[in-house]
Design a protein that fits this description.
The protein is an alpha+beta fold. It contains 14 helices and 9 strands. A 4-stranded antiparallel beta sheet has the order 6-7-9-8. Helix 2 crosses helix 3, helix 7 crosses helix 8 and helix 10 packs antiparallel against helix 11. The longest helix has 21 residues.
Amino acid sequence: MLRRIELEVLATVERGDTISDLATKLDHSESYLSRAVADLREKGLVYTERDGRRKRVVPSDSRAVEVYQDLVRQHSHIDFPELLTGKSLEVLNYLDQPRTVAEIADLSDNYRNTINRILKRFRDRGLVGTDDGRYDFNADFDRLNEFARELVHHLHRQRLEAVAPNGTILWEDHEEFLAQTETEIDVENFHETGLAVFAAFDLLFLLTRHRYYLYSEDMEDLSPAELCCHTLLIDNGARHRSYCLLLLSRIDVDEQTLRDRAAKHGLEDEIEDLFQYLKTHGDVDDDRFLEWDEFQKLAAEYEIDQ
């Protein structure tokens, strides 16, 4: 996400520093610092101002930069740039609550050995501790989670604004985000989702003026399980729940796969309710579901047997 040299620049830069100033502070060549500053500028974390023949570097007003620089000032004895390289920020992103190594590995789709190694570094420096196998922050180091999340949000906003300036992020994790836009996006790594995609399963619904996209660098095809979760993230009301039920009734969605996707999106209870509704023929105490006979009529309109 950020290279060590980028973290070093963010930890060190003060408004008005030149490349030469940063090179002196960090003991790196000016050409090396120039490349790092260019990368940070592209990410919107710093900007540069011309002062005659010199170029001055200014930290952006991003919340991520503010939180990070506060941490560096408050804990100057800790080498944060060394600690936060590689997958460290990804691990911190999932420490919004006490979690086990296995839970973080599942949520982040990383090997447990990788998570163990990173958490051991944090524990050795007193940043985290364990209670009954769950890792949590010590003292005020929970701001590391705030930094990780603010940085992710900032970078996601940069990606979205580049293709849809008025777009809105509805959900995000370390690597992906779900966005609502009013314009079409035809750019690599943006995958259309939401009600428009139900047509691929012969389910045609009345669409609004909004369009929905998942940003993901790893995904090739949107799975029905992902589509179901995105639909609930877009709108968790009766209408969208009914559309998910139609999808689950029409095609064979692996239950465990859907539960895994639900955990990633924080929708475990909602997906459990969908399964219970179908298994019990509507015996769920929730007014966000149609009465069973009403749902049967809706399913019949789409030639789905119940």
